[in-house]
């Protein structure tokens, strides 16, 4: 009987906690989405076969956005370019680099018909130890870090696209207000 009450108490607590989290609008970190107005999008890139282009397309598919060919009536993501730079953070006593920081940056433009275009930058930074005694492992680690940074940048791009939601809403409100003002002026006696 005690175990039954304990299980019932736990279930009640979990139910209460989940209803509170749902009521406050809480979402898990991976739940950023592209605005609902965008159901289809085209992706263009400086290199259509690059890893970042493939990752962005994959993220869009996961968001259930249809990928279409570029058209003036369809929103577009244009990946302008990506850069990878590194700098030395610390040195060994013999002045060789001990720790390096890698900065990955992807620049892209989102164009939405009747709304305009906006440029974005997604930036990721990672650091790693640069052991001169393990050159092969060092290059493999560097490649893994760069791939991980590309993946996180593609996710960051989707989060930045989610911010377009407010800009689209502001544009629609402005357009609605302008239509209301023009209708009011047309109906006013002269």
Q: Can you count the beta strands?
A: 5
Please identify the structural class as seen in this structure.
alpha/beta
CATH topology: Double Stranded RNA Binding Domain
- Major sheet, described briefly? 5 strands, mixed
CATH homologous group name: Lipoprotein like domain
Rg measurement, Å? 24 Å
Q: Span between N and C termini?
A: 83 Å
Tell the overall outline: flat
- The low-confidence runs, each spanning 5 or more residues with pLDDT under 50, are 26-31
Main location: membrane
GO molecular function: lipopolysaccharide binding
Subunit structure: Component of the lipopolysaccharide transport and assembly complex. Interacts with LptD.
Organism: Vibrio chaetopteri
């Amino acid at each position: 009987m005690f175990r039954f009450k304990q299980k019932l108490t736990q279930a009640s607590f979990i139910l209460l906690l989940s209803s509170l989290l749902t009521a406050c609008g809480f979402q898990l970190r991976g739940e950023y989405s592209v605005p609902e107005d965008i159901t289809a999008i085209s992706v263009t890139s400086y290199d259509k076969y690059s890893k970042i282009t493939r990752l962005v397309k994959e993220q869009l598919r996961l968001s259930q956005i249809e990928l279409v060919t570029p058209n003036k009536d369809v929103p577009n993501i244009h990946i302008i370019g990506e850069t990878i730079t590194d700098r030395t953070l610390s040195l060994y006593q013999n002045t060789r680099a001990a720790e390096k920081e890698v900065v990955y940056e992807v620049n892209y433009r989102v164009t939405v018909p009747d709304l305009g275009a906006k440029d974005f930058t997604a930036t990721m930074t990672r650091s790693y130890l640069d052991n001169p005694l393990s050159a092969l492992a060092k290059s493999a680690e560097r490649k893994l870090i760069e791939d991980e940074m590309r993946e996180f940048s593609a996710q960051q791009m989707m989060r930045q696209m989610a911010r377009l939601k407010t800009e689209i809403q502001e544009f629609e409100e402005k357009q609605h207000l302008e239509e209301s003002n023009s209708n009011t002026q047309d109906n006013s006696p002269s």
